Please model this.
Amino acid sequence: MTATTLPPVVGLDPSLTATGIARPDGTMHTVGGDAKLGDQRLARIADFVERVLIEDRPLLAVLEDLPAHAQAGGITGMAQGVVRLALQRAGVPYVRVVASSLKKYATGKGNATKADMRMALYQRFGIDVKDDNQVDAWWLRAMGLDRLGRPLVVLPQANRASLAKAEWPALALEAL
Model:
């Protein structure tokens, strides 16, 4: 890896209707679908994530964790499950980040709104993305790069303190 090459990190914001994905090259996608598709949305998510993992060969994936009140199941849990299964099958280490830590990292406020997250992305990088799922995925990828010692931007230490809230896999850190 050269000094200008970033480690391949993927950001994932799992949701049955709109899973946000930020790829190592910075491109963003949303996959899922209308509720009328039923469980077919799970197959769409799994297929797309698996394709990204094969094409991009990420060193690390960072995904938004389920809200505490949904840990035992729910619709978002189904999307979370197919994403984790795809990561495990591909042998990609991953870390789960709770929403408040993601928000704190991006904005400095653990209770930031979707608009705050979007504005932080625009103010720091000039990227104007209207899809909140993609915004979250982008910031998740940024967290992973920061944890690997390759931050995309210098953030205040108060923001970066949220990195310590997650259990980062040792394998990804040793590979650099």
Remarks:
- The longest strand covers residues 9-13.
- The helical segments are 40-56, 75-90, 99-107, 114-125, 132-147, 157-160, 170-174.
